[in-house]
Amino acid sequence: MSYRHKAIKSSLDVGLVSEWNDDHILDYTDEIEEQLLRISEQVSEVWDTSQTSGGNAPIWSQVGSSGSKHAFVVLNTGAVAGNISSMRLKLGGSAGNVTSPDDLPIFTATINVDTISTTGNVVEFGFFENSTNPFTTNQSGAYFRIKNNQLYAVSGTGTAETEEIIGAISTYNQYRIEFGSSNIKYYVNDMSAYKVSIATNRPTTDLTIKISVISVNNVDSTIRTDGVSFVRLRKK
What's the pLDDT score for residue 148? Predict the structure, then answer.
């Protein structure tokens, strides 16, 4: 589902107060939208964590006093090299692919980087083929990667990948991945101007959503997310 305006106006048109004070309704005809993290939901309700290996399984947590609580999911590995903390979207109560690249899906998430090793490939999040283990070389998907303290956009077929650097990583950002018919666009914070567009090694397999961290150099990799959304075209 998507949101649309109740009333469509041309420039200089006039209208009623009600059209502008209550101007969005849900439209179920073209898209399906899922808000995946909500304060009322524990991680296990939405996410499968069985690809966690050695690290701590992602947990639901909250901060703040009564009346101003804020919920988020914490992924941390522990300070042992190779430990992974990972979560992938559930479908029908278990892990599974949820979309096709032909659905032109959109992934949006907020990621807070608490602690990571400044060397090595340590964080990845976005669209991935469900059965592939996190941090496998040449994964089928379209996702963000944090490596050597830099942010990258990645598109892969399962046998080859394209990696484009975006820039130095900062603590808290909003990220978006948008599939087009021939390319994939990657946004950070400014959703009106993409950072990178990739047209090579576009995945063709069905995909799910994953967020994963791995410990490198015995550094306890820790990230948090307080919001993930997913939009795809509705198939008739």
Answer: 96
Residue 61: give its domain's CATH number: 2.60.120.200
Exposure on the CB side of residue 145, measured as CA atoms within 13 A: 24
Token reading at 70:
């804020």
Is residue 112 domain-shared with residue 61, that is, in the same domain?
Answer: yes
CA distance 221 to 122: 7
Compute the CA torsion angle 52, 55, 57, 59 (nearest 10 deg). Answer: -140
Q: What is the rounded average pLDDT of the residues 117-132?
A: 96
- Range list of β-strands (E), the chain: 2-5, 24-27, 31-35, 47-48, 56-63, 70-76, 84-91, 94-95, 106-115, 121-128, 140-147, 150-157, 161-168, 172-179, 184-188, 196-198, 208-214, 222-233
User: In the block, which residue shows the tokens 């830099």?
Assistant: 150
Query: CA quadruple 225, 22, 187, 98: dihedral positive or negative?
Result: positive
Say whether both 58 and 163 belong to one domain: yes
Minimum mean pLDDT among 17-31, 70-84, 202-216: which range?
Answer: 17-31
Q: Which residues contact 171 (CB under 8 A, 6 or more apart)?
A: 112, 113, 114
Nearest alpha carbon to residue 115 among 150, 142, 75, 86: 75
Q: Is residue 7 located within the same domain as residue 115?
A: no
Range of the domain at 20: 1-34
pLDDT surpasses 70 at 213:
yes
In the chain, the number of structural domains is: 2
What confidence tier does 42 reach under pLDDT thresholds 50, 70, 90? confident
